[in-house]
């Protein structure tokens, strides 16, 4: 984020679109993953997260965030997921798991859960990324590894592998596109 928390809160309250867009970009993916864990559907999860951001923008002048922005957004997504489950899965009303989800009202717990979620999400994301790299063709994988992990410039990679600079650029472009597509499917 480009702004300190107090500037973010104030910017959102004043309707600063640049700050709102920055918040959206920062949190959208993580919130979708959280919502998907509850509702088990990426489409519904995205709808829920979009509703949270829509409500934030529509009511920006009334919003008073007393916790961290992250905790606030996660709490909003959590609450909408619970409402969705309550309305669309009436059989879960009596389940212990549903009651546990409903009773997560302490923001301190949400901030701890938020931190744990970040760690788990990053580990999961890293594992998926490593799988994606392993799925690349051998030469493409080698070029990617040399460039990204060993920080070797493209001309040096071309020289070491005895291939043209154009081939290195093409292979890196293919690697990045394939990795982006794989990670987009994951997210």
Task: Detail the topology: elements first, then pairings.
Layout lengths: L4 H9 L3 H23 L2 H17 L10 H20 L7 H7 L4 H28 L3 H11 L5 H8 L3 H22 L1
Helix pairs in contact: 2-3, 2-4, 3-4, 4-6, 6-9, 7-9, 8-9
Q: Can you walk through the features of this model?
A:
It is a single chain. This protein is mostly helical. It has a domain at 1-108: Rna Polymerase Sigma Factor, Chain: A. It contains nine helices and no strands. The protein has helices spanning 5-13, 17-39, 42-58, 69-88, 96-102, 107-134, 138-148, 154-161, 165-186. Helix 3 crosses helix 4 and helix 7 (138-148) crosses helix 9 (165-186). The longest helix is centred in the middle third of the chain and has 28 residues, at 107-134. The protein is elongated. It starts with a helix and ends with a helix. Mean pLDDT is 77; it is low at 96-100 and 102-117.
Named CATH architecture of the domain at 1-108: Orthogonal Bundle
Distance between the termini: 20 Å
**What value does the Rg take, in angstroms?**
21 Å
Name of the CATH class of the domain at 1-108: Mainly Alpha
**What is the assigned CATH homologous superfamily of the domain at 1-108?**
RNA polymerase sigma factor, region 2, helix turn helix motif
Key traits:
187 residues; Rna Polymerase Sigma Factor, Chain: A; 9 helices
Explain briefly what this protein structure is.
By secondary structure, the chain is mainly alpha-helical. The protein is 78% helix and 0% strand. It has a domain at 1-108: Rna Polymerase Sigma Factor, Chain: A, CATH 1.10.1740.10.
């Amino acid at each position: 984020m480009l702004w300190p928390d107090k500037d973010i809160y104030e910017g959102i309250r004043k309707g600063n679109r640049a700050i709102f867009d920055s918040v959206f970009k920062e949190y959208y993916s993580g919130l979708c993953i959280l919502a998907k864990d509850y509702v088990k559907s990426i489409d519904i999860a995205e709808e829920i997260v979009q509703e949270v951001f829509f409500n934030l923008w529509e009511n920006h002048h009334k919003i008073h965030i007393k916790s961290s922005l992250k905790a606030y957004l996660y709490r909003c997504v959590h609450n909408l997921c619970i409402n969705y489950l309550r309305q669309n899965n009436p059989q879960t009303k009596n389940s212990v798991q549903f009651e546990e989800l409903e009773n997560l009202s302490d923001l301190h717990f949400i901030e701890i859960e938020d931190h744990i979620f970040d760690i788990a999400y990053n580990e999961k994301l890293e594992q998926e990324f490593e799988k994606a790299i392993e799925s690349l063709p051998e030469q493409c994988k080698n070029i990617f590894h040399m460039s990204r992990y060993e920080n070797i410039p493209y001309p040096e990679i071309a020289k070491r592998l005895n291939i043209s600079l154009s081939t290195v650029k093409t292979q890196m472009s293919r690697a990045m596109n394939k990795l982006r597509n794989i990670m987009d499917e994951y997210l």
